[in-house]
Amino acid sequence: MSPSARNQAAEPLVKGEFLFTAEDFARIAKILHGDSGIYMPEGKATLMYSRLAKRLRALGLKSFRDYCELVSDSNNVEERRNMMASLTTNVTRFFREGHHFEDLRDVMMPALAARAKAGGRVRIWSAGCSNGAEPYSIAMTVLGVLPNANDLDVRILASDIDPNIVAEARTGEYRADLMESVPREYRRYAEPVSEDKWRMNDDLRGLISFRELNLFSQWPFKGGFDVIFCRNVAIYFEEEAQERLWLRFGERMSPDSRLYIGHSERVRTTAFDTCGLTAYRLREGGARV
Q1: 81 catalytic, yes or no?
Q2: How many CA atoms lie within 13 A of 192 on its CB side?
Q3: Is 160 a catalytic residue?
């Protein structure tokens, strides 16, 4: 490296308590991309600095270079997970993008309920479940149509790459103010446990299995899904990775299944047809790759 290049690499990319250079950013972004598929452009440097400066303080480190050395060790699984959790945003709420839950209730559930009552299998996946608001909203919608779903072969898989957020979701406990977005007819599925906290009841919790899962790793299940929610997740991936993810979902779907994505996302592969606002169905043979 030339002297001018070395000087440029040592210049702070973001000014602050810790020296944070373009080289530091590139190393961390590469690790994040390799572990999770999440792409972070240099325009997110300030966000990376502010999120990870807390980790440096907690670990007693003096610079981002020291932190890069720490997380570059692939054996340091715990801190790499902490890094990823710090850099991903878990912003969600109950019944977010409500038209998806209306479509699930009115279009998908009548046929799925009939199948379940006849002894058939029904599977729904919340891929990127964050703090659990999405899968619990799904479970409320399912129970609203099929009150005895727990007695039938109906299950909801809720997965996220962040083990900390999965553990939080599994508790089923939420601040009272977060319950305001739950429609009144569904609030019977939760109960207050203190003045400022509510807990999802056993009917909801019994339907959902929470799992830590990287969407780009090998999936530890073989069956297909009737409904997949993957909303506001793909926005963190490059376009090529997004298409691979849609096609992987398609391999677990039939033309009668449904894929719901976030309002700012698009499925551009020709394997799917749109069937509503950010709702998609698989074409016949569309994703058998």
Answers
A1: no
A2: 6
A3: yes
